[in-house]
Amino acid sequence: xxxxxxxxxxxxxxxxxxxxxxxxxxxxxxxxxxxxxxxxxxxxxxxxxxxxxxxxxxxxxxxxxxxxxxxxxxxxxxxxxxxxxxxxxxxxxxxxxxxxxxxxxxxxxxxxxxxxxxxxxxxxxxxxxxxxxxxxxxxxxxxxxxxxxxxxxxxxxxxxxxxxxxxxxxxxxxxxxxxxxxxxxxxxxxxxxxxxxxxxxxxxxxxxxxxxxxxxxxxxxxxxxxxxxxxxxxxxxxxxxxxxxxxxxxxxxxxxxxxxxxxxxxxxxxxxxxxxxxxxxxxxxxxxxxxxxxxxxxxxxxxxxxxxxxxxxxxxxxxxxxxxxxxxxxxxxxxxxxxxxxxxxxxxxxxxxxxxxxxxxxxxxxxxxxxxxxxxxxxxxxxxxxxxxxxxxxxxxxxxxxxxxxxxxxxxxxxxxxxxxx
Length: 422
Ligand code: GLV
Ligand code: MN
Ligand code: MN
What we know:
Layout: H1 4-12, H2 28-43, E1 47-50, E2 56-60, E3 83-89, H3 103-117, E4 125-131, H4 144-151, H5 153-156, H6 170-176, E5 194-202, H7 207-211, E6 215-221, E7 223-232, E8 236-237, H8 249-267, E9 270-272, E10 276-278, E11 285-286, E12 289-298, H9 301-322, E13 325-334, E14 337-338, H10 341-353, E15 360-363, H11 368-372, E16 378-383, H12 400-416
Helix pairs in contact: 1-3, 3-12, 8-9, 10-12
This protein binds glyoxylic acid and manganese (II) ion (MN) (2 copies).
């Protein structure tokens, strides 16, 4: 039960960089982490498979064989909604925290290991999905693995030609990792046998910390979208073109970045430019082309849609005034996902039985649960984030005691899990 944090530490050593923790989809470090997770799942008494996009899925069978497996589709129709799917992701952002995603895999493994140690089986099967790509840092994807689990090739095909910073395409990266881009449909599961999807995650914010609560139950997950913006002006000589005659793409982009910030504040959402690249950037050249990402989110779909519309309007107005062109391409969007009230209630009761005062709170961060919400009821258990609540940052931290409480609460939840009759 106590190995969650040491395992997270150990897993973070599988990093694309020797200097910090970055683990992106299908790199050698990512594959090493996958092998480690497979070993831990097997040790916990689970049958393990790796799906067509590299997610690791462990299954702990129910006490009765009536609990059907949700995977894979080819096994034919499954009628019994008796498998509870737990999971989160094991890719990371660049220079990220060791618990984001990983906690939602290791806490469930610790629970299953405890059941296995006691020789205990539950009326429902438990599956743990360690999703291979959620952050999407390598190919600017998002929720790739959980989307592939539901949609197969339809989720993957539009992305196949994307290239990473080294020019490697998705197809090539998959081939190098022993995966076949032509077989992504095999990642699809039969969702009819799912009773629920539950994700444990570090809160990634300061709310639980401020309230002095180790665990929280998520009420809903914010709506979000990502965009790639390309601004084209005219490259020129930095010494010769008078200021009034320039079409500087970076100066325009700078104004656009500030517009993202002010529009997000005005709309009650959040807006972030996380990557900004000057094409052929050189100290003595007026920037001709600039690309940047825009991440826009809101607590609900309406807020986010209003924010997107306002940002598009502002960016186009700035471009027109500065005589540059702007193209705004949507990379993805995902609807706000409410957590099922019955799962909130059961999680809250388990948090209470673990000796903690529960707290309900929304999630501003995105999670695989948003994708799973398209096919089943979802619930989320948040674990308090230390160090002021910082995340997507190497300072991200969780205490041993809080991780222990998360295992205790999740185990209690699994043992008492009772889906409503439908
Ligand atoms: C996932 O980390 C997100 O971007 O919310
Ligand atoms: Mn994250
Ligand atoms: Mn995460």
